[in-house]
Specification:
Layout lengths: L9 H7 L12 H24 L4 H19 L8 H10 L10 H24 L3 H30 L10 H9 L2
Length: 181
């Protein structure tokens, strides 16, 4: 069935659309014709056997299942590389050559997961801080805060110092004004 975390092309949408059957994915045009032709033939044979020829249920079922089984064997896929009949031949013949297939979706998802795992491991490695590094960082922080506070105090003292021209009265001036001088 089509999942939401992958790119879809029209072939996959078309083949996955029929009730989400995974054996219908990655079909070629010939396989689609074989499969749907066999389904249509089964329906016609079932209707004809029951209504026109008056055959029994068992005979009609056998006549219906035969084309359907051929259509499934040749028209459906086990995976992207093998049809069901080719897969059955490989199982029965037990070839000496090992035939390994890997769905491309799984490989892409594995690549994405490994990239995420590597980036998370690198991030954890960067974030690891030893106790010695923590002490050094704490000392640097405290020294920085103390230097900042001292610097602010010096700035406040310098800015708040009164200048001589800003003084309104001095003691000598006040004494002279009382004496009348």
């Amino acid at each position: 069935m089509a999942s939401m975390n992958r790119n879809l092309n029209l072939e996959e949408v078309n083949s996955d659309a029929f009730m989400g059957i995974p054996f219908l994915s990655h079909q070629s045009v010939v396989q689609k014709v074989i499969f749907w032709g066999s389904v249509a033939l089964c329906v016609v044979l079932n209707l004809a056997g029951n209504f026109f020829f008056g055959l029994g249920t068992a005979i009609t079922s056998i006549i219906t299942v035969l084309p359907l089984s051929l259509g499934v064997a040749f028209g459906c896929n086990y995976n992207e590389d093998l049809s069901l009949i080719r897969y059955l031949v490989l199982i029965l013949s037990r070839p000496s050559k090992v035939y390994v297939t890997k769905p491309t979706e799984d490989l892409e998802q594995l690549r994405i997961l490994t990239k995420k795992a590597k980036s998370e491991a690198e991030l954890e490695e960067r974030q690891k801080v030893t106790p010695e590094q923590q002490k050094q960082l704490l000392i640097k922080f405290v020294v920085g805060v103390v230097i900042g506070i001292v610097f602010l105090i010096i700035i406040m003292v310098v800015l708040n110092q009164p200048k001589e021209e800003e003084l309104h009265h001095t003691l000598s001036m006040a004494c002279q004004s009382r004496n009348g001088v």
